[in-house]
């Protein structure tokens, strides 16, 4: 699911002729295109969807929405690592980065077996 998420503009610049901003989404910082809101300023809030600032938003509304998204886990869903999420859903949250090779799931054949054999030697 792709959300329209409120964020606070931290910095504004230009990239390849396009007005861009660094935006904070409740602790997650991303680069955002400002072409739809050319007069948006540092410190202001905007609703951002798929990397584009679409609408200016007041600070209180932005904070309330970010708090609600955080409570519902929607910020993690939107900005979290998809590989980490998929591994957690599969029940192997630490794989492939487990420190102990014995904790890694066993797979039939393939490069994973060669890595495990090398680690055991």
Structural summary, described in words:
There is one protein chain. By secondary structure, the chain is an alpha+beta fold. The protein has helices at 59-72, 74-79, 82-89, 111-120; strands spanning 5-15, 18-25, 28-33, 45-49, 52-57. A five-stranded antiparallel sheet has the order 3-2-1-4-5. A hairpin with a 2-residue loop joins strand 4 and strand 5 (52-57). The model is unreliable at 103-121 (pLDDT under 50).
> Which range does the strand content fall in?
25-35%
Q: What is the H/E order?
A: EEEEEHHHH
Helical run tally: 4
Main beta sheet: strand number and arrangement? 5 strands, antiparallel
Helicity range of the residues?
A: 25-40%
Indicate the structural class. Answer: alpha+beta
As residue ranges, the low-confidence spans are 103-121
The end-to-end span amounts to: 44 Å
The total count of strands amounts to: 5
Tell me, rounded to a whole number, the average pLDDT: 76
Strand order of the largest sheet: 3-2-1-4-5
Rounded to an integer in angstroms, the radius of gyration calculated over CA atoms is 20 Å
Q: What would the principal axes of the Cα set say about the shape?
A: globular
Which features does this protein show?
121 residues, alpha+beta, five-stranded antiparallel beta sheet, globular, disordered C terminus
């Amino acid at each position: 699911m792709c959300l329209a998420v409120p964020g606070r503009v931290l910095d504004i610049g230009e990239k390849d002729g396009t007005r861009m901003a660094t935006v904070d989404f409740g602790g997650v910082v991303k680069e955002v295109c400002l072409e739809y809101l050319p007069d948006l300023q540092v410190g202001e809030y905007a609703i951002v969807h798929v990397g584009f600032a679409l609408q200016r938003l007041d600070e209180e509304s932005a904070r309330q929405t970010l708090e609600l998204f955080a409570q519902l886990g929607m910020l993690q869903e939107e900005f979290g690592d998809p590989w980490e999420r998929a591994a957690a859903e599969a029940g192997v949250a630490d794989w492939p980065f487990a420190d102990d090779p014995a904790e890694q799931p066993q797979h039939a054949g393939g490069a994973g077996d060669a890595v495990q054999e090398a680690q055991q030697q």
